Amino acid sequence: MNYEVIIGLEIHAQLATKTKAWCSCEISTKAFENTKVCPVCSAQPGALPVLNEKAVEYAISSALALNCKINPHSSFDRKNYFYPDLPKGFQITQFPSPIGTDGYISIKDSNGNEKKVGIERVQMEEDTGKSTHMAGASLINLNRCGTPLIEIVGKPDIRDAKEASEYYKKIQSILVYLGVSHGNMQEGNLRCDVNLSLRKKGDTKFGTRTEVKNLNSFKSVEKAIEHEIQRQAALLDSGKKVEQQTLLFNIDTGTTKVMRTKSNADDYRYFPEPDLLPLIVSEAQIKKLKENLPELPDAKIKRFMQQYSIPYYDADVLTSSKELAQYFETAAGAYKGEAKKASNWIMVELLKLINESGSDIAKSPVPALELANLLNFVLDDTISGKIAKDVMQKMYDERISAAKAIEKMGVKQISDTSALEEMIKKTLTEHAAEVDRYRKGEVKLYGFLVGQTMKNTKGQGNPKLINDILKKLLDG
Ligand code: ZN
Ligand code: MN
User: Fold this and answer.
1) Residue 290 C-alpha to ligand 2 middle, in angstroms?
2) Helix, strand or coil for residue 245?
3) For residues 280 and 71, what is the distance between their CA atoms, to the nearest angstrom?
4) Least confident interval from 5-19, 324-338, 416-430
5) pLDDT in tens, 149-172
6) Alpha-carbon span 345 to 351, nearest angstrom
7) N or C: which end of the chain has fewer CB within 10 A?
8) Domain ranges of the chain
9) How far is the CA of 26 from the centre of ligand 2 (A)?
10) Rounded to whole angstroms, how far apart are CA atoms 97 and 359?
11) % of the chain at pLDDT higher than 90
12) How much distance in Å is there from the Cα of 85 to the middle of ligand 1?
C-alpha cells in the first residue's frame, strides 16, 4: 500500500457517579423507562442545572491520569442540535476551555515498542436519552439524560488497527483502575468513534477523513479500521476522492454505511451555557486529587518487573486488569518459590481455563491462595510439576483445594528413598540384559532405565531422587 494511515479516536466514557450531572436523579440502567427523570433532566421550562461535584472530581482524576494539564478555569457551553432523545435541544459540553488538555498515554506499537499517543483534550459533557426504533414507532427513554460523560479526544497519532485497539484498551484500563467509570462497552459505559484518513507516503498534508461511529468492542474498532483503510485506498487508487462522511459500522457484515455526508463542518452554534457558572478549581484541589490517584497500569508494570523480577511481557499481561493484578500479587506473595513461576501458571494454565469456561478472574474457581498452595506442593516435591497441571484442572472443575485434589487423585509423589530404591532394584532385575549392556558402555540406555523406573512408580516417583539412586546403583 502506498498510503500512510492516520487515525484519531474519540472516546466517550460515562462517569460512575450515583446521580446525574446537573440534578439528583439516580443513574440506573435497570430502572423502568422514564422513571429516573426530573424537571431538570427532562428539560422543563425554568429548571436550572446544578453541577455534580463528584463528576468534576472524576473528570479531573481522569485527565490527570491521562497526563493532561488541568485547566483551573474551564467553562460549559451549549452544543445545539435537535434530536428526540435530547429534550433541551442542546447538549451541555465544554468547547473552548475543556477541563484537561495536552496529555498522552503510552501503548505498545505493532513492533512491540513503546509509543506515546497524544491526547488533545478531556472535556466534561452529558449523555442523551435513548431512542429505540421499531416498525412504525420510535420510543424515547430519558433515564440516561444528563448522565455525566467525559469525552477523550485523541491526537491523530495512531497508525493501524492494532494500535487503535491497544490505545482503547489502555484508556479503558486506566478509567477502571481509577474507579471513575465501569468501562463496560456492552452497557454503553464506553463508546468509541474512529476518525481515519489516508495520505500518500511522504505527504505532510492530511487527506479527507471519515468518522466511523457505533463501535462497541475492541474487535469492532479493529474491523472497522481495516475495512475503512481498504475502502479509502480503493477510492484513491481509482482516482476518486474520499468524501467527508459519518459512517456506521455493521460488525455482522464487516462494512460501513453512510449516516450523513458533511458538506461543511457541522454548525452547532456553540455558546457559553448561561445557567452554569465557570468551573474554577484551585491548585490545592488539583494537588489533592493527584495525590489520591491509585497506582495506574504503567506504574504497576514497572513495579511488578522490579519487585517480582518478571519480564515486561508478563507484567503487561498481569496488569491488564485490576483483578488480575491483585490475583497475581496474592499468589506470588504466598508462593515460596520465584514469582515468575506463579506468573507462568496464571498466564498459561489459569487464564486458559478461565477463557475456555467463559469465566473471569474475579470469580476464578481456583483462588489465588490455592494456586500458591498447589505450586508450593510442587516446590516441596509433594507432587511433580507434570502432574500439577492435572491437579489444577481438578481443582478448577470441582472447586476444591490443592490438598483435597491431590488426595482425591492419589498423585502424591514418592520421595521415600528406601521405597524408591526397592522399586529401582526391581526395575534393574527385570531389565538385567539392558543393565549389562549399559555397564559395557551403551550409556544411552540410561534414559530407558529411568523411563522403566518411572513406569514402575506409576509416574509418581520423585525424578531427582530416581536419578540419584539409579546412578548410584548402576555406576556406584
Ligand atoms: Zn433529573
Ligand atoms: Mn461528545
Assistant:
1) 25
2) strand
3) 8
4) 416-430
5) 999 999 999 999 999 999 999 999
6) 8
7) C
8) 3-289, 295-409, 417-475
9) 22
10) 43
11) 81
12) 14
Q: Which ligand has the minimum distance to the alpha carbon of residue 19?
A: 1
In a 10 Å sphere around its CB, with 0-12 CB exposed, 13-18 middle and 19+ buried, how is residue 287 labelled? exposed
Say if residues 122 and 99 touch (Cβ distance below 8 Å). Answer: yes
Question: Which ligand does the CA of 152 lie closest to?
Answer: 2
What pLDDT is attached to residue 412?
A: 87
Of 140, 139, 143, 95, the C-alpha closest to 121 is 95
How much is the pLDDT for 454?
Answer: 87
The per-residue pLDDT for range 406-453, each reduced to its tens digit, is: 999 988 888 888 988 999 999 999 999 999 999 999 989 999 999 999
Among all ligands shown, which has an atom nearest to the Cα of 81? 2
Q: What mean pLDDT comes out for the span 172-178?
A: 95
- Residues 362-378: tens digit of each pLDDT: 899 999 999 999 999 99
Q: How many C-beta atoms surround the C-beta of residue 190 within 10 A?
A: 23
Distance 126 CA to ligand 1 centre (A): 12
Q: Which residue has the cell 539412586?
A: 469
Cα-based distances in Å from 403 to 375, 399, 462: 11, 12, 18
Find out if CATH 3.10.20.90 is the number for domain 417-475: no
Tallying the residues shown for the chain, one arrives at 476
Q: How far is the CA of 147 from the centre of ligand 2 (A)?
A: 12
**pLDDT at 109 (0 to 100):** 85
